[in-house]
Amino acid sequence: MKRLTHRAARTVRFAGRTTPFWLRQPLYRWTPGGFGYYRTLRRYADPGYVHERDKHPLRAKHHDAEGLLPPDAGGFVHRDYSSYDEYVEHQRQKLDEILQIGHGFTNASVTEARSRFYRRFRHLVKLLPRDAILLCLGARQGTEVEVLRELGFRNAYGIDLNPGPENELVRVGDFNRLEEADGSVDLVYSNCLDHALDLDAFFAEQARVLKSTGLALYDVHQEYTPGEPAPFEASLWLRREDVLVRALAHFSRLRRVQAEPDWTWMLLESPRRDD
């Protein structure tokens, strides 16, 4: 009976942690013109913007599959940047285009993204305390940060090269060169591995800032078929399992992995650091 009581108590606590998400979800789906920060972002649409005429000059080099090199011997595809500055400038353009075109944050797309983040993060409620430091990498407008905070993680925040205007959830930052101190973060999350310039350096930098007991949660996009449009991706792969192998070189244990049609997510722990 006592075991059942404890189990029931855990169920009640979990329900309490997830209630804010479920209360807000209908608002994102059904509020005309968008809800919260997404309503603000829609105001930046420019009816006079014509992409082919007004796009950034770098987009002449990096568009569709243009600018991508052939697959290397390991099955990875990289973008042909002439410099790190070119990489940064190119990556910054994505949100600018989305905002000006004005079609990026529909109620349906925001709700779908929130649901996916909820499926990823609900497991963390049992693994991490409310005051854990959770860092979302390449978080753009901050949907994942918002869901984490709704689940009670008040210290969740994001970084991005271009967080967009009036963003209270995401700071300006480069996930290749984190400002966080060594061993200061409880969990890192990213679904932007395909925007990393160098995957090994990407994983090593996160291992550096994670605590010895820290967790890394990654969403790995589906395999790339050479020739497919990939206008902003910096790194692509022909096999998702090769990304897992790269990640495991920087973490001691794979705690969980789960495949979906378009994504495979993996939870790793015990970062390896070069001391």
Structure overview:
The chain has helices spanning 2-30, 37-42, 51-54, 84-101, 107-121, 143-150, 199-209, 240-248, and strands at residues 76-78, 134-137, 156-160, 170-172, 185-190, 210-221, 235-237, 251-259, 263-271. With 275 residues, the protein is α/β, with parallel strands linked by helices. It has one domain (2-271): Vaccinia Virus protein VP39 (Rossmann fold, 3-Layer(aba) Sandwich), CATH 3.40.50.150.
Secondary-structure blueprint of this entry?
Blueprint: H1 2-30, H2 37-42, H3 51-54, E1 76-78, H4 84-101, H5 107-121, E2 134-137, H6 143-150, E3 156-160, E4 170-172, E5 185-190, H7 199-209, E6 210-221, E7 235-237, H8 240-248, E8 251-259, E9 263-271
Please supply descriptive tags for the structure shown above:
275 residues; 8 helices; alpha/beta; seven-stranded mixed sheet; two-stranded antiparallel sheet; Rossmann fold; globular
Brief write-up:
The chain has one domain (about 1-270): Vaccinia Virus protein VP39 (Rossmann fold), CATH 3.40.50.150. It contains 8 helices and 9 strands. It has helices at about 1-30, 35-40, 50-55, 85-100, 105-120, 145-150, 200-210, 240-250, and strands at about 75-80, 135, 155-160, 170, 185-190, 210-220, 235, 250-260, 265-270.
Per CATH, which architecture? 3-Layer(aba) Sandwich
- Strand adjacency order, main sheet: 4-3-2-5-6-9-8
Query: In sequence order, what are the helices and strands, one letter per element?
Result: HHHEHHEHEEEHEEHEE
Q: Superfamily at the CATH H level? A: Vaccinia Virus protein VP39
H/I helix tally: 8
CATH topology: Rossmann fold
The proportion of residues in beta strands is 15-25%
Write down the domain tally. Answer: 1
| Overall residue-averaged pLDDT value | 93
Helix content: 25-40%
Strand tally: 9
Note the gap between the termini: 49 Å
SS-derived structural category: alpha/beta
